[in-house]
Amino acid sequence: MKQCYKCGTEWTEKHTPNFRDECEKCFTPLCVCKNCKFYREDSYEWCAETEARAEKPRDSEVANKCDYFLMNDRHDDIDKNANNAKQKLAELFGDDTPIEEKKDADWMKVDNKKSIDDIFKT
């Protein structure tokens, strides 16, 4: 599903967004690096497309006229992979409750009632 990187609203048009297209919900420009198939936050100059790097925009959230822009279709995969990783981490530390059943970040909270001595007892 193609969607806005900022609010997650689905892009239902059949064409790839152009420079002037905006999200119908949050009015964020859609033709931005963060919505592109080639966008990699941890990559040099944000882009996996080597030809596009020559004209890197200053900001990955500003509309640009990149000839290599393809609307991203991987947001659901990223969320799914993150939940799988969180679930495996929780299982590693002995908590097998599915992540979906937990409230946001509750499973990561530290029990402040325990003292340092209690935590490190063997």
Binned strand content? under 5%
Number of domains: 2
What would the principal axes of the Cα set say about the shape? elongated
Count of beta strands: 0
Rounded radius of gyration (Å) = 20 Å
The overall pLDDT average reads 76
Structural class: mainly alpha
Poorly predicted ranges (pLDDT <50, ≥5 residues)? none
What is the rounded distance between the termini? 49 Å
Q: What's the SSE pattern?
A: HH
**Helix content estimate:** 10-25%
Number of helices: 2
Mind summarizing the main beta sheet? none
What does this 3D model show about the protein?
- This protein folds into two domains: 1-73, no CATH class; 75-119, no CATH class.
- The protein has helices spanning 75-92, 116-119.
- It contains two helices and no strands.
- It is 18% helix and 0% strand.
- By secondary structure, the protein is an all-alpha fold.
- The protein is elongated, with a radius of gyration of 20 Å.
List the helices and strands and how they pair.
Elements: H1 75-92, H2 116-119
Index terms:
mainly alpha; 122 residues; 2 domains; single chain; 2 helices
Task: Provide a quick synopsis of the model.
The chain is mainly α.
